[in-house]
Amino acid sequence: MKPFEEKVSRERRFEFRLERYLCEVSHFEWHYHQEYELVLYRHTEGQLFAGNYHGHYEHNSLALFGPHLPHTATLDQCTGPEPTTYVLWFGQDWIQQILTAMPSLQRVGELLVRAGQGVSFPTDLGEQVHSRLERLSTLPEAQRTLEVLMTLAMLADSAEWQALNPNLAPGSVTDGDRIQAGRIRRLMNYIEQHYHEPLAIDDVSRALNLSPSTLRRLFERHFRESFSEHLKQYRIGKACEYLVNSETPVALIAEQVGFQNLSNFNRQFRQVKSMTPRQFRQQFNPLTHA
């Protein structure tokens, strides 16, 4: 399923906008947009999708998506009073102009780089963000801008965050990062082109002219996981794309994404997604509900 572009605003100098959505029947609307998006779920539970990521969200789940990252969510149930989804969009140009003028917000810039992978935060932080979002609409215009920046600064200072798509290379915010960012791009391009083949870390290191130890450090530092775990997650993510967007037999999909053994594919898929490939297809492929 190809994501569609959602037009958040037609303003030439879009700054930010907060919307609240009451709990209601949801649809799988796979989309992206040009703006950053901070989303907070209150008294609801469901399934969150971002890039190749699929996971469960609950009360006070909080996530940040960068521009062009496809995402959506489906509702399972409302779990309390006033079940609401808060969505705060803010423009790329607006936030970049502020970061350029205020070097003290460097960590916010680093947060926005990570947003390209999709970032989730712990629920206790979601509770704090809820208080700020509730206050936002009651403030004068100038103070609303400060409130948004203070919210982003709070998230940037948090050490407890999770990259939803560690298989997506983060961007770079300084000239000193260019060499490392180039390595990451080469690495991700190589995995994207060869993930369906038998692949070991020695193969990748030779292809990229990097030592295995350098490559291991690259995964630990930028993706927070080992090479084997990263490759498994990438392959499972690709399998999910095929399951949702086609009627290709599961056994063939397993082979296409690099699993030589169907039982191993089923076991690894269930470990990552907490369901079998067939259950995943039945739940999220619209063709199975036709």
TrEMBL record:
SMART domains: HTH_ARAC (SM00342). It comes from Reinekea blandensis MED297. Residues 185-283 form the HTH araC/xylS-type domain. Keywords: DNA-binding, Transcription, Transcription regulation. It comes from the Bacteria. This is Transcriptional regulator, AraC/XylS family protein. The lineage of its organism: Bacteria, Pseudomonadati, Pseudomonadota, Gammaproteobacteria, Oceanospirillales. Pfam families: HTH_18. GO terms for molecular function: DNA-binding transcription factor activity; sequence-specific DNA binding. The keyword Transcription applies.
